[in-house]
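Researcher: I'd like a structural prediction for the single chain below. Treat it as a standalone chain; there are no partners to consider.
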Amino acid sequence: MIDYFENYFSYHCSQVKADILTMKNKYISTQSNKILTYFNQMNKDCFNFSEAVTALPHSSESALKELLSDMVKRGLLMRLKKGLYYIIPYEQEADAFMPDWHLIAKYLTKGTEHYIGYYSALQIHNLITQPSLKEQIVVAKQTRPSTLKIKNVTFQFIYHNEKHFFGSKKIWIDSFSKVICSDLEKTFVDCLFKPDYAGGIVEVARAIYTSKDTIKFDKLLEYTERFKSQAVIKRLGFLLDILEIETEITKQLYEAKTPSYVLLDTELPKFGKMISRWSIQQNLETETIKSAIYT
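Model: Treating it as a single chain, here is the predicted structure.
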């Protein structure tokens, strides 16, 4: 039986100890070992059913499905969704293990253009105050279902049409991994478009104020014009005013706005005074926004 484990020991040689041979839930059969070794040699942490067929070409479809199901039960694999599996490091307990949410995005959207956006992008840019158990992924085509729960984390797929799908780049999230995320300026445009996806207008205002010295305002204006949303123009202009952020783009935003009014915070009810300068219905007091930022 030792031969069964030889390749898998090399797979996790730095963590695995001899006594794991007796661990009840981590028993590795010959076929399981072949799959794990195959993807380890390819440096792949995640694979789909079609790729598993390539790893075991002589197995029938039903036998392979049964094998993968058994590997999930034994804590060797984590099922992300139907036909998609993530390899659990041998030393990790299956019940407690959860891969980095940002890294899972590319597997859940395989074959679809995407980027991590909204509140999740604010997190990657180190601009949030409250962590969230939700990963927001902007996709270039409709995804069904639009939400997917993996353990206690909800993955939300937010569709953007061609005109709104731009402004992403690869960003380091640790010393080893990059993910596709909206850049700083596009993150603000998206969040101003749908403040309810970004924790509300207070979170957006706080992020803009915190980043005021690093924002490329010419790019922010370019993105705003390209996005073609009056809501973005008006909310951005209003926030730049009340946060006293001096920039040349304020004048250009003002000239681009239309007379029709938009709600400041889409998370709150429709009430509040009308601010004619930015055609904003201000349903959140200025002092409430400022106090959340300055305190």
